[in-house]
Specification:
- By secondary structure, the chain is α+β, with helices and mostly antiparallel strands.
- It has 15 helices and 22 strands.
- The strands form 6 sheets. Strands 8-7-18-19-20-17-21 form a 7-stranded mixed β-sheet. Strands 12-2-1-16-22 form a 5-stranded parallel β-sheet.
- A hairpin with a 2-residue loop joins strand 7 and strand 8.
- Helix 2 packs across helix 15, helix 6 packs across helix 7 and helix 9 packs antiparallel against helix 10.
- It is globular.
- 49% of the residues are buried.
Length: 469
């Protein structure tokens, strides 16, 4: 009788856990799934903590509700699979602002990650060139072209739209700069439309029309009780063996599958597996790949990352605007690049005692030295900058927390998707029972990571002779 499959999932973030759930649902009964997580906690960048008696996210706070076709996102589908659909909550205050010349102005509506589809909405934010976005009789991009977002937006709509609107929107998601980030990776729908449309505003409208949203339908969702509920439910549903504090130090192909060396050198453990799903960030993945797939490792390891810190304050009865938060262009010169008024944005987090939770994101790509400050200094700087932005001193915090995410956010330069596709093709040809998944390859955001893990799991099932999904 053939023994059950043994599948190793390296990485216990949401990508790896979503993969484990998909393996459990679609692999043959009895499949042995083991998740190896080098830290003591599952979830990766999903981490719910506690501050001043309230649950608060120290990592990702929400997920998109829709996928690019207009259907449920992979995060919503996973929540439904985990019986958490009824726990999904939505922002009760949606309007966000931009800090422009030291004052908060509403973010214009109708944009796609800051790129406008209607130029008439921009008067309060940016000046346009004399003849913006002309129709030159040809598509904006060639069939296979990829460009930096900033290069395209600057050429069509000028510097102020790029610096004051698009760059802070991308900075809020990627901690990167519009002049360096790949259009095809960060805005795939816009890139597709730009290969057909002759103007940038026309491409934005076409991309939006391709994924229509019912009026009033929520864009974002979160899990009541915290994102860690999603993590814990996925781990339980996978029925996988969870190995915490279990760093995989070596990965070697064998005649029948894979050999993993797990744990510190003095107490290293050797484990055999039939297939491996590699969901750790790109650089640790490259180290594991280097011994048997050096060219793939070089490609994967070339991806750079930005580091950020999330600084959360619990404030007694502050006077806050009715905004979900605000974004800050780099041209404003603040340490803060974004802030979220948690207890304003999310109605389920509001407290009867008036204590408010405010979280600021600190650190852009290339500014890692700014994050070398001690926690107390970051807390004080954020408090002072928030007070300045809001125009009056905020009360002394009841409590504060600094969550540092070193090397957290991938920086996708033009051509990223093609490089990843080529690496996967090469790896699949030589080692079909090894798959790569995660934000380093497919994009950031909970739905993208969930879908990446699920796709990797399906590849593994097929490679082992199963039917996939």
């Amino acid at each position: 009788m053939r023994r059950p499959w043994r599948v190793a999932v390296i990485g216990g973030g949401i990508t790896g856990l979503a993969a484990a759930v998909r393996l459990r649902d679609h692999a043959p009964a009895g499949t042995e799934i083991t998740v190896y997580e080098q830290s003591g906690a599952l979830g990766g960048k999903l981490r719910t903590g506690e501050l001043a008696g309230s649950a608060v996210e120290f990592g990702a706070e929400s997920f998109l509700m829709r996928d690019p076709t207009g259907g449920d996102s992979a995060a919503v589908a996973l929540a439904r699979r985990l019986d958490l659909a009824g726990a999904i909550v939505h922002p009760t205050v949606r309007q966000a602002a931009l800090l422009v010349d030291g004052r908060l102005v509403p973010i214009p509506g109708g944009t796609l990650v800051g790129v406008p589809g209607d130029l008439s909405t921009l008067a309060a934010v940016a000046r346009l060139p004399e003849h913006p976005d002309p129709d030159e009789g040809r598509p904006l991009l060639g069939p296979d072209a990829d460009v930096p977002v900033g290069a395209l937006v600057r050429s069509r709509l000028g510097d102020q739209v790029t610096d004051r609107l698009v760059d802070p929107m991308l900075g809020g998601v990627y901690a990167g700069r519009a002049d360096h980030l790949s259009l095809a990776t960060t805005m795939p729908a816009l890139a597709r439309a730009a290969r057909v449309e002759h103007t940038l505003t026309g491409a934005v409208r076409a991309a939006q029309a391709a994924a229509p949203r019912a009026p009033g339908a929520p864009v974002f969702g979160a899990v009541d009780g915290g994102m860690s509920r999603l993590v814990e439910a996925a781990a339980a549903a996978s029925r996988a063996v969870i190995r915490r504090n279990a760093a995989v130090r070596e990965l070697t192909p064998t005649a029948t599958g894979w050999r993993l060396v797990v744990g510190p050198t003095p107490a290293a453990e050797t484990v055999e597996a039939d297939a491996v799903l590699l969901t750790v960030p790109a650089r640790p993945a490259a180290r594991l790949l280097d011994g048997f797939a050096p060219e793939v490792a070089a490609t994967v390891g070339g991806l750079d990352y930005a580091s950020v810190a999330l600084v959360t304050l619990a404030l007694p009865e502050p006077e806050l605007p009715q905004l979900s938060g605000f974004l800050v262009p780099a041209t404003e010169g603040t340490l803060i690049k974004a802030a979220t008024f948690f207890t304003t944005k999310w109605g389920h987090l509001r407290r009867p005692d008036g204590v408010a939770l405010v979280r600021a994101s600190v650190g852009r790509y290339g500014e890692e030295t700014l994050l070398h400050r001690a926690d107390d200094e970051l807390l004080d700087l954020v408090h002072r900058e928030l007070s300045a932005v809001l125009g009056s001193p905020l009360p002394t915090p009841l409590a504060g927390h600094v969550q540092r995410w070193g090397g957290a956010l991938p920086q996708y330069t033009p051509g990223h998707l093609d490089r990843v596709a080529a690496a996967r093709v090469a790896l699949r040809a030589a080692h079909p029972t090894l798959a790569l998944a995660g934000a380093g390859y497919d994009g950031v955001g909970i739905p993208v990571c969930v879908r990446s893990g699920e796709t990797g799991a399906e590849e593994i099932i097929k490679a082992l002779g199963g039917s996939g999904s």
